[in-house]
Amino acid sequence: MKYLVIVAFIAIVGSLFSGLVFLVRDKGQTERTVRALTVRIALSVALFVFLMVSFWLGLIPGKIQ
Predict the structure, then answer these.
(1) Using an 8 Å Cβ cutoff, are 8 and 48 in contact?
(2) 32 in any annotated domain
(3) What's the Cα-to-Cα distance from 61 to each of 1, 14, 44, 51, 54, rounded to whole Å?
(4) Alpha-carbon torsion (7, 40, 32, 27), positive or negative
(5) Structural domain total, the chain
(6) End-to-end alpha-carbon separation of the chain, Å?
(7) 33 in a domain, yes or no?
(8) What is the value of pTM for the model shown?
(9) CA-to-CA distance for 25 and 46, rounded, in angstroms?
């Protein structure tokens, strides 16, 4: 579970970085920046939903012992 969250964070940061690269290279003339940032938002929402469902199913403990 922990590794899946780490991989998701790396993918989110990678998508954010690629959006920055596309913004600088294309100077806002193409849709690649928007697509990269849309992917980042989708990954962030998917990670949030995954964590909430995991908590609801009891896969993530509610209290730190």
Answers:
(1) no
(2) yes
(3) 12, 29, 21, 11, 9
(4) negative
(5) 1
(6) 18
(7) yes
(8) 0.81
(9) 28
Q: CB under 8 Å to 44, separation ≥6 — which residues?
A: 12
**In-domain check, residue 65:** no
Identify the domain containing residue 18 by its residue range.
Answer: 2-57
Q: How many CB atoms lie within 10 A of CB 11?
A: 16
C-alpha–C-alpha distance, residues 35 and 17, integer Å: 12
In a domain, 63, yes or no: no
**The two structure tokens encoding residue 4:** 């899946």
The pLDDT tens digits for 4-62 are 999 999 999 999 999 999 989 988 788 889 999 999 999 999 999 999 999 999 888 87
